[in-house]
Each structure stands twice: as structure tokens, then as C-alpha cells.
Amino acid sequence: AAADPIADDADANDFPSEDEYMVNMTRAIYISGPHHTLHNLTAGLDKVLGWWPIFIEMLKLICKLLSQPWTRDRLVTSCFDHGPQLVFRSDIASFNARVYDKRWGTALNANHLLLDVRRPLVMGWDKQRYLDRGGGHDAPNDPNVGERDGERGIDLNAVDAAIQSKKFWGYTMMVDTVAVVFLYMSGWFDACSCHEDLPTAEHFSHRQRRSYWTRRLSKACIMCCRRAPEFAAGKIFEMLRHFLDLAGRSLEFELAAEGIGPQDRAEIMQDFQSIRQYTFFIFSVKFSHWMQLPWILFGLGHASEEVARRCAVRAMQLFHAAAANTVHHF
User: Fold this and answer.
1) Helix or strand (DSSP H, E) at 124
2) With the C-alpha atoms ordered 85, 86, 91, 94, is the resulting torsion angle positive or negative?
3) Which of 57, 109, 227, 274 is the most buried (most CB within 10 A)?
4) What gap in Å lies between CA 182 and CA 204, rounded to an integer?
């Protein structure tokens, strides 16, 4: 009988014995999860941002004011009990977000929720009225509760400075824009190439992104999440650049429209550029292997014949350039 070429070339350890079932993954190609990489990327962002330490303390103070029952009740009954502010009373009363500065997810979520109540909060906030009127059923009896730091008190001077700071609100817009970039990258990971629906610059505004995301989630396809050919072709870097370019243009326009001064705008945009450079660095470290063997071979399955040919040429060049004793899968 003719010898089985596959059996002759195989190692005995590659197959299970007759009395057990085993899946051998020793020759499988390792692929890191892009969502996991995107999540871990945020852990180091605070190290590259110059104004982040000041911003995060301001964010924590305002969220504490709006989330603690006794301070929130006092705020609602003193600053949102009259005039146009009454319209936004329920929005302020329902706010609840805490910030743990070691976890970017809590900061991004609180930042996004705070932007939803930014205009009514800036319009309705009155430090003196807050101190004079007292308030909530759970508030301490001390009328100066808000003037000091403590477990129950809040430094109202710092809160007042943050709420009235245009630079703080401009920075919240920058942080929220960066969060949207990560959200859109995550959405691109999970989407498919056959129903590509990329956001435009207008979808980075706080009001328009919901309509885009609703439309995006309504599309389902069996090819969703199958992005390996595009990763091998370097599409991930193209998409990151595309989203960051749109975000940068949108952010510059919104900062100018809010009347933020040139110096503050420059400092905010400098931190945005720092995030951009850091994100590209991490993506290069974590995803550049897709353009090396053996991952480059996934590019042969690209929907574009031109791109598939380009990946094939690169694969052959890499194979012939490798040393004769290189361990590979072929």
C-alpha cells in the first residue's frame, strides 16, 4: 500500500491516542484580541497628558457634588427651584456617576454623563445661593458644610472654579472625543467589510453620535468580526488615522465655537496630540506583526484582488529573506 505522506510527515504527538480526545494547538497561530489591546491602552494615557491630574480632580469634585444625596438635594433645592432652571431639575436630580481615577472607564463614563448636564449646570449653579439656602433631608446641619474638604463636605471653592472654567469644559470635550475614537475603533473591529459604514466628522459631535451608532448597530452580517485580511493589509492603522483626523478637526471646531481662549485651546489640543502619538505607538507595538509572516498570509483572503496580491508579494519576500533555519508553519 502507498505510504500516507501526511502520516509520514506528522509527529505522533500531533494526534490523540485511541482512548482520549485531545486538541493540539501547538501549531496554531496566536492572535491577540484587539478589544483587549484597546482597553489596556487607556491604562497609560494619564502618563502622557499634561493637564490630566488637574482635570481629574475637578471631575471628581463635580461628580461628587452631583452624586452624593445630601449635596445633590441641596443643589436641586437651592439652585434649581426657580426660573428656567426648573426645566432641568430632574436631569440634575437623576445624575449619578463616580470617578475612580485609576480606571479610565469610570472617568470616561462620568465625563460623558457630565457633558449631558453641562449647560444647565453652568446656567443654574450659584455658590452663594447653595450656601444660603441649605437643602436636602440628609444634609448635615452645619451651614458651612460645603466650604471644607472631608468625608461628607466638598470644597465649594474648587467646585465653583471648575464649573466656571471654560478650560475644564473644553477638556471634557477632548476626553469625550477620544472616548468616541476608541468606541468607533471597537465598532470597526466588530463590523464587516461588506457593509462598511464609517462615521463622518459630524458624528463626533456630542449630539450626532447616537444617531450614527443606532444605524450602525442595526446592521448584521455573517462576516462581522472577520477582519484578519484587513489587519494583514494594514487597514487598522488607516482606520485609526482616519478616526483621529476626524476627531481632531471636530474638536478644534467645537473648542473655538465654545469661546475657549487661544492659549487654553492650544494646551487642550497639545494633550490630544499626545494621545494621538501614544495610541499610534501602542498600535504599532501590538498590531504591526500582522504584516509579518505568518499573519500576512491572511491578506490572501482580502476582498480586493489588488490588496491580496500585494500581501502575497510581501509574504514571498519575507519568506525568501528569512534564514534557512527559521522555524515556520509551512
Assistant:
1) helix 118-124
2) positive
3) 227
4) 12
**Residue labelled with grid coordinates 436636602:** 136
- Cα dihedral sign for 289, 291, 295, 298? positive
Cell of 197: 459604514
Of 212, 242, 178, 141, the residue nearest 49 (C-alpha): 178
Let me know: does 135 contact 73? Beta carbons within 8 Å. Answer: yes
**C-alpha cell read off for 202:** 459630524
Which residues are CB-neighbours of 9 under 8 A, at least 6 positions away? none
**Cβ distance 219 to 195 under 8 Å?**
yes
* CB neighbourhood size of 258 (10 A): 13
Question: Are the C-beta atoms of residues 147 and 156 closer than 8 Å to each other?
Answer: yes
50-103 pLDDT, tens digit per residue, is: 999 999 999 999 999 999 999 999 999 999 998 999 999 999 999 999 998 778
Please tell me the distance from the alpha carbon of residue 204 to that of residue 195, in angstroms, as a whole number. 20
> Grid cell 527559521 — which residue?
326
Query: Which is nearest to 241 in space by CA: 208, 279, 187, 289?
Result: 279
